[in-house]
């Protein structure tokens, strides 16, 4: 049987826990991350002869090491053996999630964007062109509603092929002065992480 390990990442209150329940049902394991008081939730389910282990990470606003929650998510992304991540975003405040999504893309981690609260967005006159967003980002973009299970089947399909969701060489281009600074710092970066990703965070 094939196995996948996928992280659920997003800001607080974007529906990560609801999505986890929609994916695996009520049988989840809640525990503290080793050495901390921060809770993480895990669950698994078999889809088409593939066992998928899901990890619901703490709600964060960016990939950094400023808070305990951010440190835990960073460790889960870069120190654990994972196959990819699903970034859950609130359609009514999409721009807040895009920065974190771009960080994950810069780190060349396979990722899928799941758009939650689509109905709430439509009530406010917000309509996301998912196909256009998909072309811009180069990744799968799936509208979801975990409570009604809207989009969950399609999301599972994308998750099962998440290893093909990486975008090697993805980069956000900045002005010339910033790019020169990034290049200088990149030349001094050591370790397994993409040098440009580390340089931008510094």
From TrEMBL:
One of its GO terms (cellular component) is plasma membrane. InterPro entries: FeoB_GTPase, G_FEOB_dom, GTP-bd, P-loop_NTPase, Small_GTP-bd. Pfam families: FeoB_N (PF02421). SUPFAM superfamilies: P-loop containing nucleoside triphosphate hydrolases (SSF52540). GO terms for molecular function: ferrous iron transmembrane transporter activity; GTP binding. Residues 3-165 form the FeoB-type G domain. This is FeoB-type G domain-containing protein. It comes from marine sediment metagenome. The lineage of its organism: unclassified sequences, metagenomes, ecological metagenomes.
């Amino acid at each position: 049987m094939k196995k996948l390990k996928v992280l659920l990442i997003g800001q607080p209150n974007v529906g990560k826990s609801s999505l986890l329940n929609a994916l695996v049902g009520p049988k989840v394991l809640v525990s503290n991350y080793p050495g901390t008081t921060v809770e993480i939730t895990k669950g698994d389910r078999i889809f088409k002869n593939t066992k998928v282990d899901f990890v619901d990470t703490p709600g964060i606003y960016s990939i950094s090491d400023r808070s305990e929650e951010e440190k835990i998510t960073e460790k889960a992304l870069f120190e654990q053996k994972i196959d990819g991540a699903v970034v859950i975003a609130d359609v009514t405040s999409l721009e807040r999630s895009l920065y974190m999504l771009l960080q994950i893309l810069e780190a060349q981690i396979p990722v899928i964007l799941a758009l939650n609260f689509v109905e709430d967005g439509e009530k406010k006159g917000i309509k996301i062109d998912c196909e256009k967003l998909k072309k811009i980002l180069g990744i799968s973009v799936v509208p979801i509603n975990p409570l009604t299970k809207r989009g969950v089947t399609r999301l599972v399909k994308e998750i099962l092929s998440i290893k093909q969701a990486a975008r090697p060489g993805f980069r956000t281009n900045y002005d010339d002065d910033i790019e020169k600074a990034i290049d200088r710092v990149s030349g001094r970066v050591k370790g397994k992480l993409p040098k440009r990703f580390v340089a931008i965070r510094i």
